[in-house]
Amino acid sequence: MRRVAVFSNMYPSERHPTFGIFVKNQVELLRSKGLEVDVIVIDEPGKGKVATLKKYMTWFLRSIGYLLRNKKQVSLTHAHYAFPTGVLSLMGKKLFGIPYVVTVHGGDIDKMAAKSERIAKSTRNILQKADAVIVVGERLKRDVIDRFGVKEENVHVMSMGVNTDVFKPMPKEEARKELTIPSGEKLLLFVGNMIEAKGVLDLVDAFKKVQHAHPEAALHLIGSSKDVGFMEKLAKRLLSNDVRISHQEPLQQKEVAKWIAAADVFVLPSHHEGFGLVALEAMAVGTTVVGTDVGGLSFLLGNEAGILVEPKNPDSLAAGLNLALEEPSDTRQKIAEEKVAEHTYDVIAQRLTAIYDDVSKGKNSK
């Protein structure tokens, strides 16, 4: 049996059940296919520079200790996020000859690598030395090839996949009854971190315009409110717009799926997005998705699988939301179902294990 070590600076815990949940889901998927997978991860978001530094140093030492003890048993390592996580896999290859795969999720390229030339150089080295690079979206493929000099044949476009056992169609009225949502309400739903980069303020501005056309419309937000400064800014924006919007902290995935089923429209107004997995999950449930024409969303919602709008443009967002409410489309839903079929867990497991096989056989070794 192959043994894989997964490194990630995001992984859920009992206290933080949604922190990097997509990584845990993939680990459990691999284990269900018979792979032996060890995880060496950070499962605590943490706060403050001192706490963060201590957390990362402890993780790095724990990871190096793991590699020392298991260097002869591990077939390969898989790093989620190029930097800083990929540093561990790169060290494993340099010190012990262990090949590695790295998954680029977006923020590691769009934000982290832009922080300094040193980080950009390290990111480039990690990606170029990897035996395989997985990117979660088509735009990221061009980025790692054009900006970071990775050979095209070494880059694989593959999402984290959607769990269709959890995110599946459910009768809307049944979902609304369980959540005590009025049947006549036009529910717009957002799920994601409560930060400016997710377009939450744009959504508040757009929602005011939607309510003029649809007084029965309601907006519900589900997401972490750890950014106190942003939440204060959001509260002021709500007051100035005179709109009532409900919010709750992150939920377990089964509960999120229920909220998506209850919604008339799912909205993801991100300023940048590597893939937009939550949008795919909404498509799997059968709810119309309105998203910004950025990153992976451009490809995911293209060809009328959803409704694309301009980023950072509340007017365009409001028009897209009104279109979704006023003109439901069977054709759009059919195209969305076809997109979902390309990203099921069975498809992703087959593709990922094939990459692992190639790497462990040395087909992409450098």
Summarize the structure.
This protein has 366 residues and is an alpha/beta fold.
Cα distance spanning the termini: 24 Å
Query: Helical stretch count?
Result: 15
- SSE succession: EHEHEHEHHEHEHEHEHEHEHEHEHHH
CATH second-level architecture of the largest domain: 3-Layer(aba) Sandwich
**Proportion of strand residues:** 15-25%
Largest sheet: 6 strands, parallel
CATH class of the largest domain: Alpha Beta
Biggest sheet: strand arrangement: 2-1-3-4-5-6
CATH H-level homologous superfamily name of the largest domain: Glycogen Phosphorylase B
* Annotation, overall tally of beta strands: 12
Helix-strand makeup class:
alpha/beta
Helix share, percent: 40-55%
Unreliable spans? none
Total domain modules = 2
CATH topology of the largest domain: Rossmann fold
The best one-word shape is globular
Mean pLDDT: 94
CA-atom Rg in angstroms:
21 Å
Q: What key attributes describe this structure?
A:
alpha/beta; Rossmann fold; 15 helices; six-stranded parallel beta sheet; 366 residues
Structural commentary:
The protein is 48% helix and 16% strand. It is α/β, with parallel strands linked by helices and 366 residues long. It folds into two domains: 3-161 and 344-360, Rossmann fold; 172-341, Glycogen Phosphorylase B (Rossmann fold). A six-stranded parallel sheet has the order 2-1-3-4-5-6, sandwiched between helices. Helix 11 (277-285) links the parallel strand 10 and strand 11 (288-292). Helix 3 packs across helix 5 (117-129), helix 7 crosses helix 10 (253-262) and helix 8 packs across helix 13. The mean pLDDT is 94.
